[in-house]
Amino acid sequence: MYDESMLFVGPAEGECTAPLLFPATQPLSLRAATHEFVFEEGRDFALDADAGIITRLSGSRIPCTPQDDVPGLVCEKDDDFHRRQVSATYTHRPGTWNGYTPAFAGGEMPQTSRRLAASEPLRLAITGDSISEGYNASEFILAPPRQPAYGSLVAAGLEQAYGSRVELHNCAVAGWTSDDGLADVGRVAAWDPSLVIVAYGMNDAGYAAPADFARNVRGIIEAVRATSPLAEFVVVSPMLPIAEPDDHALVRFPAYRDALLALCDDGVVLADLTTLWTDLLGRKRGYDLTGNGLNHPNDFGHRLYAQVILSLLVAHDR
Q1: In terms of domains, do 179 and 40 share one?
Q2: 162 pLDDT more than 90
Q3: pTM for the full model?
């Protein structure tokens, strides 16, 4: 596991804990999310390897956010939330993940698979909201280690795996819903894309019924195919936002996932970040995975987005 993120919440001078995703085997490296500082076991933290729990020690140099400051701590474009987090690199026993695991979908994406296998150029377009625009990846907020957002990671991963030149056109805009995406689909279609990532839902959840959401995504697919009939699509069901006790919109996320799954056929596959996030939250906390304290992924989360999408597109023997 590389640079798994966490946020320590608790008393400034007392002990507090944060969970790793897996029970750890030695060695473990713990550093600032910016990669600018390495913390020392025994001085800054203690590790319960079998339980996968890190305890922040009294007097530690690890950032600690008071519990009362966490609600409402939302950082959209600055690096405050990023600098509060730390990241852990460690080894763990194989076969310990029992949650969502995306499978290679080459058979469902014949045109993309053929292009990549032949190392042909691929024109990749993204339509989506602030997550897809890149919000709260460290490159976006101009903070170390300057990791790109998931779209660029996907493009780089495909180039590395297949030797194809990937031309990325990111049309995502912060605040947009699938309504906006459908209205703007001409801009996406104008690139004559080979592959399109369609990633909405976070902003739709405040108002849109699943059937209306799916109708918009279907409309995006149909409009692009009207001018690029061989285009194929990865439709993304989003991560989960930080849950509020009375947040009734949360029930829409699994319903959106199911509606997107119903759209899948030849040339359309689902990247199910909703199920992945649900499974992660069985062990991690929302504040460990968010980059803004609300509804954007951090660097670790952007890598998870990229990993799921690349798992659909990259054959396992690559």
Answers
A1: no
A2: yes
A3: 0.95
